[in-house]
Amino acid sequence: MPITVLATQHWQNAYTGSNQGAGAACSLVDAGSYVGAIGTIKQNAMWRVDRQNPPVGKTNLQIQKNGVGNPSTIACCLVPDALATQIGNLHAPPGPFLDQANARFSELTRAIHSGLSQSVGSRRMQAAAQKGQVLMEVRVYEVQGNFSA
User: Fold this and answer.
1) CA 101/CA 107 separation, integer angstroms
2) Main-chain dihedrals φ then ψ at residue 3, nearest 5 degrees
3) 123-143 confidence digits (pLDDT tens)
4) Are the C-beta atoms of residues 86 and 105 closer than 8 Å to each other?
């Protein structure tokens, strides 16, 4: 199955303020930067992309609002760690191996951006525990499949 992005059955508590600018934050991470230690990958003035506590074998990418308390998440996407090692050598000499690595890098980056973007767009209200309380949630998306190249 080629790389695809699927909605999971899981929802994440979400930031309740404006999501303005959150879509642009989806491009702060790519196939070369998504794997690593828990913490912030990159940020702009309003949003950051963090690696959060992951399930086994996956990276849990979240876009979060800077400077606010919990919940600060506006998007969540799970990405298999193994895909990072399957990209290939991006520093190979010109030729088929470099072409394949570049194609895989681009394919995975598009999937990551898509998963985060779809998660931003999934935000909805939760049933409030108290009258007048506003609670939001976003759907968790997951990158699945294998490289097409």
Assistant:
1) 10
2) -60, 130
3) 998 876 667 677 899 999 999
4) no
pTM metric for this prediction: 0.93
Q: Report pLDDT digits (tens) over 57-114.
A: 999 999 999 999 999 999 999 999 999 999 999 999 999 999 999 999 999 999 999 9
Q: Which of 66, 76, 59 is nearest to 120 (CA)?
A: 76
SS3 annotation, the chain: CECEEEEEEEEEEECCCCCCCHHHHHHHCCCCCCCCCCEEEEECCCEEEEEECCCCCEEEEEEEECCCCCCCEEEEEEEECHHHHCCCCCCCCCCHHHHHHHHHHHHHHHHHHHHHHHHHHCCEECCCCCCCCCCEEEEEEEEECECCC
- Rounded distance, CA 66 to CA 63, Å? 9
**Which residues, listed in sequence order, are joined to residue 2 by a DSSP beta bridge?**
146
φ, ψ of residue 96 to 5 degrees: the values are -65, -35
Q: Provide the terminal-to-terminal Cα distance of the chain, rounded to the nearest Å.
A: 12
Question: What six digits make up the tokens of 99?
Answer: 């072409």
